[in-house]
Predict the 3D structure of the following.
Amino acid sequence: MHQLLLNRDIYLELVQAHIPQARKFLWIVTADIKDLHVEIDGKYAPFLQLLAELVEKGVAVRLIHAREPGPRFREDFDRFDSLVKSELFERILCPRVHTKAVVIDNRMAFIGSANLTGAGLGSKHEDKRNFEAGFLFDDAQHINELVNWIDRLYLGHYCQTCKRREHCPDPIDEGM
């Protein structure tokens, strides 16, 4: 499968249909990270609630982002103990990240323009959201390459040669 998703279809296909189906792991890489809401059981709730529910089911969630989250995201985050306390939830910040990617269980991935924001991946109205595009795919070779790259980023592989290290608030490799 190789499916082009545009605008609200990213929310409907990726966020609503596929992300809740994660059973082993969910990795999200984004440049910007803000409060966003999604429909859960017929009501709109913070996306963090969906992540917390996945963690509570035993799904490992990894979130890599370039900027500090917005204030509402931080407030919501503190409400979900499973994200704060569980070893299944991992979050790192790397200012060089500009990638927007999602990997679900090593079986499906999304690469596109949408950040982890309401206007990007969230449930915003069609006439209020950003214009976004991306591809949903299940090609094992490409997913494997993406997973290996994300893992190397997460483990701080690129930190030692980074020429922007002086701008990094929390170098990944120093926490390892």
Summary: Residues 140-154 form the longest helix (15 residues). Helices lie at 8-18, 47-56, 71-78, 81-85, 140-154. The chain has one domain: 2-175.
